[in-house]
Design a protein that fits this description.
By secondary structure, the chain is of the alpha/beta class. The protein has a domain of about 110 residues: 2-Layer Sandwich (Nucleotidyltransferase, domain 5). It is built from five helices and five strands.
């Protein structure tokens, strides 16, 4: 008989100042009374990309397979992973209307990250006083602030130009 998987509770959030604009993501992970906070951001991105990045980074931060309850305030994230992903993959990363799936690079990365774990997706209402969701919002905001303090206006404008020219999938995490 195999040992049960360690249980982990995760809260995630992503945000963007402008959409597209400077973005931040964050996650709070808890297990056996231990807590870890992670966050980062990008100088040019979208809100949806940051929501996806938060979940990817949280799951990849786990050192071994776990039984995860992942709380998100993003319907896009929850519906994408629980309802739409299988069809997108079956259709060669195309939507039901034959359009390319937006953020396919991150959906693929999330699919890879999820495979290692047993993940239960829970939607929570954002900005509703849920402590760990509010903490993620604060951490994502701090990541965006750090980017604005680190990069010049010219660098942010250039990052946005590259982001838009690359259809939004070429931007890498910088924090």
């Amino acid at each position: 008989m195999s040992e049960p998987l360690p249980k982990v509770t995760v809260h995630t959030d992503g945000g963007c100042q402008g959409n597209p604009g400077v973005g931040g993501w964050a996650a709070v992970l808890e297990s056996k009374g231990r807590r870890k906070e992670i966050s980062g951001g990008e100088p040019a991105t979208t809100n949806n990309r940051m929501e996806l990045r938060a979940a990817i980074e949280a799951l990849n931060a786990l050192n071994k397979p776990c039984d995860v309850i992942l709380h998100t305030d993003s319907e896009y994230l929850r519906n994408g992973i629980t309802k739409w992903l299988h069809g997108w993959k079956r259709n060669g990363w195309r939507t039901s209307t034959k359009q390319p799936v937006k953020n396919a690079d991150l959906w693929s990365a999330l699919d890879d990250a999820v495979r290692r774990h047993k993940v239960h997706w829970q939607w929570v209402k954002g900005h509703a006083g849920i402590d760990d969701n509010e903490r993620c919002d604060q951490l994502a905001g701090a990541a965006m602030k750090k980017i604005r303090e680190t990069f010049t206006h010219r660098q942010l404008d250039e990052a946005m130009r590259r982001f838009k020219d690359g259809d939004g999938e070429a931007s890498g995490s910088l924090l």
